[in-house]
């Protein structure tokens, strides 16, 4: 091999963990027997029932509407809220584009804000500050990398301000609860903690909104009449079969991930030159393992790649750097357009390998290689600690 040439990648950043053909078979046989393939069939209903039992109970039930992606779940909810055309929607710039596209496609306009330095999320307090200088008709916080949004705080915000809240919890299945007032959208994309290939769900305790979301997911039909211009966002029975097979695997899958996580996280937390995202509960696992580095993420990623360790710079560039969103207004913590934490994360955050089935040897190799890369870089740059966040 030439000097400087990369080794073939040995440790991937992410490996989806979905049921195999054998695990799917009982559910596929049920489809064969029922011969119903879509239109809210029995498997979709069973899956929605399972989800609703996680987030609600008999006294405070939760409505769950499945959808064929997390993006569709977001867009259905935004459309069902029927906000005034061209109204602004407060959301972080540090997120996946679907948070903003679901707003633009429903005739609303993103208003980008910064995120908090430890959780990397838009908080209720930040939204209250933004109200001093900007008007907005909806807030869309993001449960960044699976870190749950402050549900009690967002419920209180809705009660206090009357402004609806839709949490983009695409990656936070298993961590994010559903509020009394705040609505929550989840993704079941193959790379998410509960992956089924493509899929999503909207969870809400607002029964009237749930009905509108359901109707919009089915072309806008309410009984036999179209009441609003909806689209087809229904989950098929085949996707629900994968979901139910995945449901059965969850306890084992979670136990394995938890067993691996504590040692990995402990080792990373004492690695000099990085800080970790905070805000997870004691039993909660991140969907993606993203760290904040004292050095430019680009350089660290290149050095890790040389050692066969794959990384990903999630949410980089942040949304206000994308041409399509460049004209959207920004509302920074100082009341101007600067988003300092977002800018910092854009340059310094890096996603490390973290997936079900990762071995302890792989975890140890990531930590040791990363530490060596950081030590060398810090020494060269005369730096001792992360420049800003979470030190
Ligand atoms: C924050 C966020 N929102 C929305 C989505 C879109 O979800 P889906 O891929 O299921 O449409 C993603 C996907 O990665 C995401 O990370």
Which keywords apply here?
globular; 11 helices; 4-stranded mixed β-sheet; 391 residues; Aspartate Aminotransferase, domain 1; alpha/beta; binds pyridoxal-5'-phosphate
Structural summary, described in words:
The chain has 391 residues and is α/β, with parallel strands linked by helices. The chain folds into 2 domains: 21-244, 3-Layer(aba) Sandwich (Aspartate Aminotransferase, domain 2), CATH 3.40.640; 250-381, Aspartate Aminotransferase, domain 1 (Alpha-Beta Complex), CATH 3.90.1150. Helices cover 39% and strands 12% of the residues. It has 11 helices and 13 strands. It has helices spanning 21-34, 42-55, 70-80, 97-104, 124-131, 151-161, 207-217, 237-269, 297-306, 340-348, 360-381; strands spanning 63-67, 88-92, 109-113, 138-139, 166-168, 183-187, 200-204, 221-222, 225-226, 274-276, 289-293, 330-331, 349-352. The strands form 4 sheets. It has a 4-stranded mixed β-sheet, with helices on both faces. It has a 4-stranded parallel β-sheet with strand order 4-2-3-12. Strands 10-11-13 form a 3-stranded antiparallel β-sheet. α2 packs parallel to α8 (237-269). The longest helix is centred in the middle third of the chain and has 33 residues, at 237-269. The protein is globular and about 70 Å long. Bound molecules: pyridoxal-5'-phosphate. Residues 69-71, 95-96, 98-99, 142, 168, 170-171, 187, 189, 200 line the site of pyridoxal-5'-phosphate.
């Amino acid at each position: 091999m030439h000097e400087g040439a990369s080794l073939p990648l040995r440790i991937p950043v992410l490996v989806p963990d979905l049921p195999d053909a054998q695990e799917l078979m009982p559910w596929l046989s049920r489809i064969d027997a029922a011969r119903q393939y879509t239109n809210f069939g029995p498997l979709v209903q069973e899956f929605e029932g399972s989800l609703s039992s996680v987030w609600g109970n008999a006294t405070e039930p939760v409505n769950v509407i499945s959808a064929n992606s997390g993006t569709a779940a977001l867009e259905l909810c935004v459309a069902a809220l029927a906000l005034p055309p061209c109204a602004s929607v407060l959301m972080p710039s540090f997120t996946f584009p679907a948070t903003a596209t679901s707003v633009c496609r429903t005739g609303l306009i993103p208003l980008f804000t910064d995120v908090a330095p430890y959780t990397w999320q838009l908080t209720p307090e930040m939204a209250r500050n933004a109200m001093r200088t900007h008007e907005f008709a909806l807030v869309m916080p993001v449960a960044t990398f699976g870190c749950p949004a402050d549900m009690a705080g967002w419920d209180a915000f809705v009660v206090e301000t009357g402004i609806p809240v839709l949490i983009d919890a695409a990656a936070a299945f298993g961590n994010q609860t559903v509020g009394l007032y705040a609505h929550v959208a989840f993704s079941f994309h193959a790379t998410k903690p509960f992956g089924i290939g493509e899929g999503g769900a909207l969870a809400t305790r607002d029964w009237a909104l749930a009905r509108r979301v359901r109707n919009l997911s089915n072309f806008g039909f309410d009984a036999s009449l179209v009441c609003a211009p909806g689209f087809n966002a229904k989950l098929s029975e085949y996707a629900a079969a994968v979901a139910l097979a995945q449901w059965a695997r969850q306890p084992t899958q979670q136990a394995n991930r938890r067993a691996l996580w504590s040692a990995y996280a402990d080792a990373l937390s004492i690695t000099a030159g990085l800080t970790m995202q905070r805000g997870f509960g004691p039993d909660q696992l991140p969907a993606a393992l993203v760290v904040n580095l004292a050095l430019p993420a680009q350089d660290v990623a290149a050095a890790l790649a040389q050692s066969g360790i794959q990384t990903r710079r999630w949410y980089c560039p942040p949304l206000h750097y994308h041409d399509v969103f460049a004209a959207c207004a920004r509302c920074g913590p100082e009341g101007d357009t600067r988003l300092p934490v977002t800018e910092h994360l854009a340059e310094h955050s890096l996603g490390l390998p973290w997936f079900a089935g990762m071995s302890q040897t792989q975890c140890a190799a990531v930590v040791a290689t990363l530490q060596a890369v950081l030590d060398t870089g810090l020494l060269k740059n005369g730096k001792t600690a992360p420049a800003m966040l979470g030190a």
